[in-house]
């Protein structure tokens, strides 16, 4: 039962997160390091990827591949987390957060999200 709840929360989390890239693009654009080209495209592509992977989780034969895709997407987001750390928790257009919270997000929450996806892959 716990795994079923975790699975549906995972699907909902990535559907919401992906949709939020379109509803609140300025939130994400400040996280994209300035040395990356085409930040608007990166933001929209991230949203499409999150929504697409959430939907693929619903297909039992593709669930494992979707979970691996989520893990790879989370790995692809690591430069944004490092950039946030380098900026001491203050990004353009966003309220500053404590620097320790940026480290917590990278070193604790990212691995938890990866484990969560891996656990729900079957």
In words, what does this structure look like?
By secondary structure, the protein is mostly helical. The chain has one domain. Helix content is 74%, strand content 0%. The chain contains 6 helices and no strands. The protein has helices at 2-23, 25-29, 39-57, 63-76, 78-86, 99-119. Helix 3 packs antiparallel against helix 4 (63-76) and helix 5 (78-86) packs antiparallel against helix 6. The chain is globular. The mean pLDDT is 94.
Keywords:
single chain; 122 residues; mainly alpha; 6 helices; 74% helix
Outline of the structure:
Helix content is 74%, strand content 0%.
Number of helices, counting only DSSP H or I runs of 4 residues or more? 6
Q: Rounded to an integer, what's the Rg over CA atoms?
A: 15 Å
Count of strand segments: 0
Write down the domain tally.
Answer: 1
- Biggest beta-sheet profile: none
Overall pLDDT level? 94
Regarding quaternary structure, what we see is single chain
- Poorly predicted spans: none
**Proportion of β residues?**
under 5%
Helix content: over 70%
> What is the element string, with H for helices and E for strands?
HHHHHH
The computed structural class is mainly alpha
N-to-C CA distance: 14 Å
Globally, the shape reads: globular
């Amino acid at each position: 039962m716990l795994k079923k709840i975790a699975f549906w929360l995972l699907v909902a989390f990535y559907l919401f997160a992906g949709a939020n890239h379109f509803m609140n693009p300025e939130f994400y654009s400040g996280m994209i390091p300035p040395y990356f080209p085409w930040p608007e495209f990166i933001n929209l592509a991230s949203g499409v990827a999150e929504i697409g992977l959430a939907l693929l989780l619903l297909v039992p034969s593709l669930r494992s591949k979707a979970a691996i895709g989520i893990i790879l997407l989370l790995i692809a987001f690591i430069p944004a987390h490092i950039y946030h750390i380098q900026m001491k928790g203050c990004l353009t257009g966003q309220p500053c957060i404590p620097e320790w919270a940026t480290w917590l997000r990278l070193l604790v929450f990212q691995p938890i999200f990866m484990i969560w996806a891996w656990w729900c892959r079957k």
